[in-house]
What we know:
The protein has helices spanning 44-50, 118-138, 155-167, 180-185, 198-208, 224-228, 243-250, 259-277, 290-296, 298-313, 330-338, 368-372, and strands at 3-8, 18-22, 32-42, 63-64, 68-76, 88-92, 101-105, 110-111, 146-150, 170-175, 189-192, 212-217, 231-239, 284-287, 321-325, 345-349. The chain has 373 residues and is an alpha/beta fold. It folds into two domains: 3-112 and 320-372, Quinone Oxidoreductase, Chain A, domain 1 (Alpha-Beta Complex); 126-294, NAD(P)-binding Rossmann-like Domain (Rossmann fold, 3-Layer(aba) Sandwich). The structure holds NADP nicotinamide-adenine-dinucleotide phosphate (NAP).
Amino acid sequence: MPLRRLEISQFGGPEMIRLVEDAALPQPGPGEVRIQVEASSLVFTDMLIRRNLYPVLKLSLPLTLGYDFVGRIDALGAGVTHWHIGDRVADLIQLGGNATHLVRPADRLVAVPQGLDATRAEPLILSYMTAYQALFREADAKPGDSVLICGASGAVGMAALDLCRAFGLRVVGVASARREPVVTSLGAAFVAYDGPDAAGKLDRLSQEVGGFKVIVDAARAESLAAAMARLAPQGRLVALGFSAAFRNAYKAGDDSPGVFARLRFALDFLRIKWLSSRPGSSRRVVFYDISGRRQRHPKEFADDLVTLFTLLEGERITPRVQRAFGLTDAVEAHRLIESGQVEGRLVLDLMLPTGGGSSCDVRDESNPRNKDS
Length: 373
Ligand SMILES: NC(=O)c1ccc[n+]([C@@H]2O[C@H](COP(=O)([O-])OP(=O)(O)OC[C@H]3O[C@@H](n4cnc5c(N)ncnc54)[C@H](OP(=O)(O)O)[C@@H]3O)[C@@H](O)[C@H]2O)c1
């Protein structure tokens, strides 16, 4: 059986993605397992990696895309005793998940309940984990707290809205005007960043609640001073993403952002990291980095992923998967992500017939996964 995977050998646009076939499957070494991948990421972060704009990862080419995966163990390396063939597992890996098979160290994996659909479980690893840890680990949100989510219609933003609903937080979501129905359907008040007087509306909403206890910012659209002024006295602004900055850099239709746009990204990133490292002040900016936090707290990551799987099993959360794609349609998926056409999540579904073929909406009955759910 060949290994099929999505590779780039040059940084750039979606057209850089190639479906590559290797004749032999990788073999697990001591302490490793091989996994047949069921589902993997197709998210904004994969696109940043493809364009070499991802701030916290040194990349070398060629590389296989795919920030995370859910799959089933199909070979054990020497000395692995706590996993068995057929066990379902998940991991956050940054690179390499967009493949039919991969090899991982056995002790990094988290068990996935057998009954969960892979395309619904996969969004929990990066998108939901980011939202969960931003809200509850970085900002210590509690039921009843007022929360503002900037970038509310994206993968992380919708996960955050879903979690706020599940945990009884009061939430305001910011996204473009066309996203109002989806944001309000998740129980949030809504402000359109491209509507009239967006900043004034946010200021007034903040005053009504005595300042937001938590702001989760996936967009970085406003000055830090304006955003911080909307925090409650002990509030936390968790900065985690740069969607708006990216869109601004590309809005001229250039295929790659200019030196100044890159410099702006870099300076903003460094400033937030610096502010984040300063102890003390009552209103604080915190920079969240999922991989860095996992490195510092590996057990916490595994515990939180188990919590998220349990919430999904109990139907307390509902990941919104707009569409599942096969391997051969990944270029189309990346184009959709870049054009801002995605509401919630896209997922790479490795269990579609031939591992590719035609793309397939998860709501479409021709997708075998829909028949289970
Ligand atoms: N730090 C970490 O560990 C971590 C982990 C995961 C993701 N991230 C980052 O978080 C960011 C979001 O990821 P994602 O997967 O959710 O991306 P996404 O699905 O592309 O979502 C982007 C969101 O940003 C919104 N947006 C764009 N311009 C905006 C503006 N001017 N004001 C307010 N919102 C605006 C979009 O709204 P409309 O579509 O309505 O315009 C959309 O809701 C990315 O930068 C990603 O790399 C970081």
